Amino acid sequence: MIKKQLLARDIRDPATLNAMRIVPRHEFVPINMQAYAYADHPLSIGMGQTISQPYIVAYMTQILKLKNHHRVLEVGTGSGYQAAILGQIVDSVYTVEIVEALAFTAKNRLSALGYNNIEVKSGDGYLGWPNKGPFDAIIVTAGAEEVPQPLLKQLKEGGRMIIPVGPHNGVRQLLLITNKSGKIKTKAVMAVRFVPLTRKNN
Ligand code: SAH
Fold first, then answer.
1. Position 197 in a domain
2. Residue 151 has what pLDDT?
3. 76 in contact with ligand 1, CB cutoff 6 A
4. 48: CA distance to ligand 1 center in Å?
């Protein structure tokens, strides 16, 4: 996975590569899918949930330019795999999952694997996690139709956010959003497909 899927493409950040080497991806998929855990594609793992392709996980992690002391927010915990990758690199990770059963499973899995620097909560990640912010980096792993304003407000000055934005059931663009001294800049970096970001009341 590391050589063929990451190094052979454009993943160069040592911290990202190291995390991708260490985190046991097979622990985050159901037993009947474990044989495919390291394959070069996303995996559907029930309840409308998908673990992104390893390359996309690495790409979205690398682009955040994470440092050890960073505080990071993830929206869309899913299996907890992306959170574990982040938790391998930074001091504190906060991750929000709208499906309560998924949040519960991910929380138990992450603590069983020894990730005690990751907090999981069940809720609507569109709203972020205001009392834990502001964040050095925000990663949204579900596809949004627009950039959630509450997340922009929780991004620190100098912070970076990566989020797939576009129409539901279509191709979205991964947007890299930076906050340079209060000035928000947006850049489309890749076309992607993601499961939709849903809201509690629709
Ligand atoms: N990062 C995950 C994969 C995410 S799949 C992993 O590494 O396994 C997208 C997830 O986003 C799904 O679990 C879905 O339930 C969740 N989701 C969708 N809308 C959400 C919202 N508004 N807030 C939080 N989570 C949401």
1. no
2. 98
3. yes
4. 9
Q: Which DSSP category does 53 fall into? A: P
Q: What phi and psi, each to the nearest 5 degrees, are found at residue 65?
A: 50, 55
The whole domain housing 178 covers 2-192
Between CA 184 and CA 175 the distance in angstroms is 12
Question: According to the model, what pLDDT value does residue 189 have?
Answer: 98
Name the residue of 197, 199, 202 whose CB sits within 8 Å of the most ligand 1 atoms, as the mutation to test its pocket. Answer: 197
Mark the ranges of the chain whose per-residue pLDDT is less than 50.
202
Supply the CATH number for residue 105's domain.
Answer: 3.40.50.150
Q: Each residue of 142-156: pLDDT tens digit?
A: 999 999 999 999 999
* Model pTM score: 0.97
CA atoms within 13 A on the CB side of 197: 26
Q: In this structure, is residue 75 part of a structural domain?
A: yes
pLDDT at 49: 85
187 in any annotated domain: yes
- How many domains would you assign to the chain? 1
